[in-house]
Amino acid sequence: MPNSSLALSSLDGIYIGTECLLALCATLGNALVIWAARLNAAFHNATLYFIASLALADAAMGLLVMPLAIVVSLGMAMPTYGCLFVCCLMLVFSNASILSLLAIAIDRYLRVKLPTRYKTITTERRVWWALGLCWCLSLLGGLVPMFGWNKAGPRSSSFLRCRFISVMRMDYMVYFRFFLCTLVPLLIMCVLYAEVFYIVRTKLSQGVRGAGAFYGHEFRIAKSLALVLLLFAISWLPLCTINCVFYFHPDSQIPPYLIYLAILLSHANSVMNPIVYAYKIKKVRTTYLFILRTYILCKKPKPALAEQTTDPES
């Protein structure tokens, strides 16, 4: 028994250390993405606004969700509804991530489906309304358990060792959180990107004069953003699958290290996106370099680099 306790303690230590590292990387990396989007905000690029929204959600994962996940993993004593609020707050920002991804997919679809009307449809005012809707739905969806769909009971005011499964109902996590709020948007995004790639390939194969550069650029951007979507699915589906196992087979014994690994994988997704942008999206990469050279190393930016950063078509 002492050895088992020691093994669990060691596992907790590895988990907490890894969470701290991921939190730091997610916060700094996504702060850089938001900074890059801010420097390019003058061009009113709708996609950059949605990427900034995704980065804000990922930065919040590092600043709030991962530290709160550590608190929950330690089973600290707190009021029942305090524990429930902490657990709900952890869900809000992952909701914002997937809705921001959905907004990006819709934006890219409109860009290739209606290229001549795109700028009139995606006005700055509509983009801000779309962002507000994403965050309001994320907040409401994450806080649903606070209104009764939980294990706490309507008048519970006692203290408990705060654990996620102590206050959150698995039917909420499976049917509402996974099937409705995660799986449905993922399927919609898959259809949208499939349509985007079909339209782009069709236009490129037709060899329309002047369209090659536009659709070639859109194809590269769509591939990069589809990769972001793929990484999101790979990162979150294992944890969602574990929740399904807990709900449909409550007697199943899942090793703690697998649960921790699935949680860490889902949180690691917040670190991946800034790296994908740096390697795959030229505008973001050049802005990263501009920030590094101008604001961090305090050097005068190269003229070519500054020109690319301030070029709305780059």
From TrEMBL:
Q: By its UniProt entry, which InterPro entries does this protein fall under? A: Adenosn_rcpt, GPCR_Rhodpsn, GPCR_Rhodpsn_7TM
Q: Which residues cross the membrane?
A: 14-36, 48-72, 78-106, 127-149, 174-200, 225-248, 254-279
**What are the residue boundaries of the G-protein coupled receptors family 1 profile domain, all occurrences included?**
29-277
Against SUPFAM superfamilies, the record matches this protein to: Family A G protein-coupled receptor-like
The subcellular location is: Cell membrane
Checking Pfam families in the record gives: 7tm_1 (PF00001)
Name residues in a coiled coil.
Answer: none
Q: Which keywords has UniProt assigned to this entry? A: Cell membrane, Disulfide bond, G-protein coupled receptor, Glycoprotein, Membrane, Receptor, Transducer, Transmembrane, Transmembrane helix
GO CC annotation: dendrite; plasma membrane; synapse
The record describes its membrane topology as: Multi-pass membrane protein
State one molecular function term (GO).
G protein-coupled adenosine receptor activity
| The family this protein is said to belong to | Belongs to the G-protein coupled receptor 1 family.
In Swiss-Prot or TrEMBL terms, this protein is called Adenosine A3 receptor
Q: What is the source species?
A: Zonotrichia albicollis
Q: Which gene encodes it?
A: ADORA3
